[in-house]
Recover the amino acids of this structure.
């Protein structure tokens, strides 16, 4: 018995995340709607987790919602913090250092909020976020949907790191898209705003084909399974009264399915933060800011830190 | 009217979409979300296919009484059926629940050139049948490894990869010798057959299950040839190919 315990402790110290920022962040692990009351398994930051919808609300401590019970598989009695937000279950392996970022659009009553997919990809979390920020790949990877040759040019746009909320924000991004959303019937010049409010999450706002005054929201919540494996969770929050949730989900699954081989072929799998590591063409403006922002926070998990 | 019960990310469904496109057959798609919803295991879908697998094809222009007798296609309007209405039994036509069976049926019935499944040539259809069985072996290995990595299936992915490499090695050797006899396709002849389409999807998607094709040059040349068949279409994870460079 003792031997077994020592062995599992050792296995844990080998894989456990030593990055305090990431360790103490919230991470999405599964869609609420996909989680039943039987035991589910997943991995987060190299550790095996067990989670399920809890049957009784009998826990008295107050570390958040208790609709779901999440724990390390190796320590089933010690419940981890749980937070339900934006359709997903979030947990933290350490002590949450800050509340989860806000996404106020999720609560707007006329939005169709759809948990579109949770896909496994062999890539680091920061590489997935960076790909999400990059419009340049649309015509080549999402041909006929999010882009189309010869409309390949990424026009000038603005990026900043906000002082108050500490987010990377890219604005004035514009791109011609043949089919901007599940409910789009014709091509349009689409305007994008990107937010990176969490090292492993990004939210994009794009012109809504149904309503000129509003923006559709697509959020990528990356679950770091380990340093070079992820589950990519997508939330789609659109103003679209006609498309069925299934059509919205399939649209997003197609897009993610197209990105998957591109991401899996990127080398190195961890994102290099050294400004000289990759050519400025691949790492365009928002990527430069994102890498700088990760460096500034001292992120080491899933990246190759810049030499000091 | 033909209805394909389809999931965009399924390689077995892709086999059928490829042939439908190459034969320019009109059809309607009914999406069954394989992951994460697992709609292929739902009651409404199991009423159509008790096996709970995709693809399923329903051909309502087929009339069982007149089997064998070819009649012009009738234009019937598709009854919309979705999760709510699917308990209406959709089957007043022919329902096929296996990708190989569907390929055989579509090619035999709708390919006017009779090249995709040359049913009057016993040796050829026997060889095609061998490759259809081989394709099932690829589904059981390479496809399972992909499901383990992308869709979190609880299978022994290493064993699946090892099996897939055995099959890829056999296929690579077959194709290498075929090329030396000036043959381009799995079954000898001038034109591709359904054997090529049955084997193609989970080979071209193999890297999603961490199965590299680096050591199989003849397979790589053959996948390029498949991509140049008129009517070829892609699916997520599969890239189109440029025109052949003429020297
Ligand atoms: N022999 C069948 C197998 C099809 C198959 O395995 N389909 C997968 C999707 S690509 C499936 O539905 N799997 C569900 C299961 O096996 O339970 C065929 O070729 O059509
Ligand atoms: Fe993409």
């Amino acid at each position: 018995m003792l031997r077994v315990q020592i062995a599992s402790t050792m296995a844990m110290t080998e894989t456990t995340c030593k990055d305090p920022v990431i360790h103490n962040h919230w991470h999405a692990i599964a869609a609420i709607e996909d989680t039943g009351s039987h035991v589910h398994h997943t991995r987060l930051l190299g550790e095996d987790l067990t989670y399920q919808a809890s049957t009784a609300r009998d826990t008295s401590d107050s570390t958040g919602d208790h609709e779901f019970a999440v724990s390390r598989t190796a320590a089933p009695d010690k419940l981890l913090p749980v937070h339900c937000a934006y359709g997903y279950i979030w947990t933290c392996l350490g002590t949450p250092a800050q509340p989860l970022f806000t996404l106020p659009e999720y609560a707007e009553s006329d939005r169709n909020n759809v948990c579109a997919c949770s896909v496994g990809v062999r890539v680091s979390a920061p590489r997935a976020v960076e790909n999400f920020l990059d419009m340049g790949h649309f015509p080549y990877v999402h041909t006929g949907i999010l882009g189309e040759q010869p409309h390949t040019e990424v026009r000038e746009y603005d990026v900043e790191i906000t002082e108050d909320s500490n987010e990377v924000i890219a604005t004035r991004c514009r791109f011609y898209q043949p089919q901007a959303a599940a409910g789009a019937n014709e091509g349009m010049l689409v305007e994008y705003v990107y937010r990176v409010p969490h090292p492993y999450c990004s939210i994009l706002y794009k012109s809504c084909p149904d309503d000129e005054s509003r923006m559709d929201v697509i959020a990528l919540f990356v679950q770091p399974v380990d340093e070079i494996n992820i589950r990519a969770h997508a939330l789609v929050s659109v103003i679209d009264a006609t498309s069925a949730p299934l059509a919205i989900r399939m649209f997003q699954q197609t897009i993610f399915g197209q990105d998957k081989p591109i991401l899996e072929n990127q080398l190195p799998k961890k994102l290099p933060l050294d400004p000289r590591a990759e050519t400025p063409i691949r790492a365009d403006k928002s990527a430069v800011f994102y890498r700088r922002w990760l460096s500034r926070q001292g992120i080491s998990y899933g990246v190759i830190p810049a030499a000091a | 009217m033909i209805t394909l019960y389809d999931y965009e990310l399924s390689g077995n469904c892709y086999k059928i979409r490829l042939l439908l496109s190459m034969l320019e057959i009109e059809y309607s798609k009914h999406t069954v979300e394989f992951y994460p919803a697992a709609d292929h295991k739902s009651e409404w879908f199991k009423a159509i296919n008790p096996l709970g697998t995709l693809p399923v094809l329903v051909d309502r222009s087929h009339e069982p009484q007149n089997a064998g007798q070819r009649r012009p296609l009738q234009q019937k309007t598709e009854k919309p059926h979705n999760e709510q209405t699917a308990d209406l039994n959709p089957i007043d036509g022919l329902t096929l629940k296996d990708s190989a069976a569907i390929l055989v049926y579509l090619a035999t019935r709708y390919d006017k050139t009779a090249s995709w499944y040359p049913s009057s040539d016993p040796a050829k259809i026997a060889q095609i049948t061998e490759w259809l069985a081989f394709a099932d072996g690829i589904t059981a290995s390479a496809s399972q490894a992909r499901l383990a990595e992308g869709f979190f299936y609880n299978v022994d992915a290493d064993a699946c990869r090892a099996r897939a490499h055995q099959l890829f090695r056999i296929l690579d050797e077959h194709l290498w010798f075929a090329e030396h006899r000036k043959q381009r396709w799995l079954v000898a002849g001038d034109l591709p057959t359904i054997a090529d389409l049955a084997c193609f999807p989970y080979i071209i998607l193999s890297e999603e299950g961490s199965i590299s094709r680096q050591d199989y040059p003849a397979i790589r040349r053959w996948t390029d040839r498949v991509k140049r068949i008129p009517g070829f279409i892609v699916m997520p994870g599969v890239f189109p190919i440029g025109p052949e460079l003429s020297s």
